[in-house]
């Protein structure tokens, strides 16, 4: 897939739906057209936006559900996934105590590209690819050049076992990209997400916190 085609997909998705709080980080848009709140689908509920798979791991029947809102280009999110998520996974996810849902936030076009690659592997590979995106975040974002970023993201996808044909299809899927942006908007508005990472625990939104505080919060919800 050509660089121009990839860019056209992302520009179309972002301009069509907007990002209601990206005005706080205008430099991150880097060449993309700015857009205003109140796009055509800004008021849609997540249930009305088709074909976006909820990425979750753990026990879907658990009494406690944790939703993480994060961006693949956010350094604080990378730090969380390097230092906190492994503990959270060992203590609460693998043990079946919680259901953990990951929802992407789009500060910029590369963040959306990363999501397209991560989701390209389907539910079974998503969290593995997401982990690689965070682990190699500095590498694939280092140049700031669109073509280089695309190349580096493709490398990660291929390490995860995706073929060129699969990556071409995922990165050129305009309908999926626009649905993902609309879904992000609706969910973020519902939970008042203003920074990343943020967490929604049984419907209540919290900002990033040390693991000790996170553990205390979850234990309270679990009644432990």
UniProtKB/TrEMBL annotation:
It comes from the Bacteria. Keywords: Disulfide bond, Isomerase, Oxidoreductase, Redox-active center, Signal. Residues 52-220 form the Thioredoxin-like fold domain. InterPro entries: Thioredoxin-like_fold, Thioredoxin-like_sf. Pfam families: Thioredoxin_4. One of its GO terms (molecular function) is isomerase activity. Belongs to the thioredoxin family. DsbA subfamily. This is Protein-disulfide isomerase. It comes from Poseidonocella pacifica. The lineage of its organism: Bacteria, Pseudomonadati, Pseudomonadota, Alphaproteobacteria, Rhodobacterales.
